Amino acid sequence: MILWQYLTLLLSITVQICKAQRCEEFTDLDLSHSIIGTNLKIKLLLYTRDNVTCGTLVSHTNLSTHPQLNLSRPTTFVIHGYRPTGSPPAWVHELTELLLAREDINVIVVDWNHGAANANYFKAVESTHKAADNLTAFIKIMQEHGASLSSIYMIGVSLGAHISGFVGANLNGSIGRITALDPAGPQFTGTPPEDRLDSTDAQFVDVLHTDIDFLGFREPLGHIDFYANGGTDQPGCPKTIFSGGSYFKCDHQRSVLLYFDSVNRKCTSEAFPCSSYKEFLDGNCLNCDRFGAAGCPVFGYGVTEWRDVLLRLGQTKTYFTTNTVSPFCRTNYRVEVMIWNKDVRWGYITVKLHGNDKEAVATIDHKASEFKKYTEVKLLAQFDKDLQSVKKVSIKFSTGNVCKTKYKFRVLRIRLTHLERKERPLCRYDVLLEDNKEVTFRPLLCEESNF
Ligand SMILES: [Ca+2]
Ligand SMILES: [Ca+2]
């Protein structure tokens, strides 16, 4: 009897181990497949907190064989884009892990590498509608098994963003949310809403643009559109073709990396509504009143916190800037400067904040600012990191003048206001700056002064 129990236990352990080892991998193709061309074949890979790194291949028709797919939990689909070389997207595993660390959900990676791997981009585009029909049928089966459409979230990268849109439209816009990470531009720009992602495709659609001049889509497509660093080129990405393949895809791929930082809460990028990037950099769009107490929306996973107000507003175009590497988020201050020089001064300002053991730097150099006597100039300073406590401030003013004349810059008042934290601004009065010479001082809390 004991031996029998022992054998049964051994058998069950062996079955468990075998089960555990059967991890389904993302389809790995190579350039030759892409050159010959591939036809659409979709694999659905399920990941949950019970198997974060081991994918389960899900049947498109028979969900009862997958007890791991618990439809009382929300389901997030991850949909990749064009795969010109046939390789699996490098970011899929990390995104899956981050999503599962953040929430107890089903993550379904939609592997349509057969279809996306095609030297002919137009063929891959053609496959997007078919891929969407396939996913729609699957979601309808999920519904039959008790899933609610509102709990369905699709994260689509590039072409994947439009696939998400087509699925959403097939389901009358009733899926909960679509996040589009640099939605593809080529073959979609200028098309009507039914041929691309648009804000009617889901209850809530948020979009990130990182490469609008090449692989991405320029116009707003969602309830909220984030233009990172203006949406055209990303800092740290190669500026010339001589840097190899990454020149073509670095801006586009940055969208996924920026999203990572928001899922793992590494830091927050507050985004400001504005009509253009230039206006934003000029510091003309720092008002967040329309969003009430919540302030301006924060880019990424948690933007659903602003969902109601964004739906009320209809369409909101926002801007934020980033660092060249993760953590990408920057910290925004409003810097107000008033001078009392008789003559007008033009120049650039660099501000350094000194904390206990760290330094944050912001250079306001997108254009030369004009400073006039007794006129307060408002500037946006974007620091590479956030310091909890600012001990000292350094300011450098440069006119860019190479002549010998050393301009003096008589500052009557400089005021620094953190735009995200509700805390008293920092001030300093009566500072004399010399062209290109850094001056360091201890800031005062503005209200404590009698100025
Ligand atoms: Ca659409
Ligand atoms: Ca670009």
From TrEMBL:
Domain Lipase: 37-328
One Pfam family matching this protein: Lipase
Entry's localization field: Cell membrane; Secreted
UniProt catalytic activity: 1-hexadecanoyl-2-(9Z-octadecenoyl)-sn-glycero-3-phosphate + H2O = 2-(9Z-octadecenoyl)-sn-glycero-3-phosphate + hexadecanoate + H(+)
GO molecular function: carboxylic ester hydrolase activity; heparin binding; metal ion binding; phospholipase activity
SUPFAM superfamilies in alphabetical order: alpha/beta-Hydrolases
Superkingdom as given in the UniProt entry: Eukaryota
Residues reported to bind Ca(2+): R196, D198, D201
CDD domains: Pancreat_lipase_like
Record-linked Gene3D superfamilies: alpha/beta hydrolase
Record: active site: S158, D182, H252
Record-level GO cellular component terms: extracellular space; plasma membrane
Protein topology in the membrane: Peripheral membrane protein
Family to which the UniProt record says this protein belongs: Belongs to the AB hydrolase superfamily. Lipase family.
UniProt name for this protein: Lipase member H
Originating organism: Cottoperca gobio
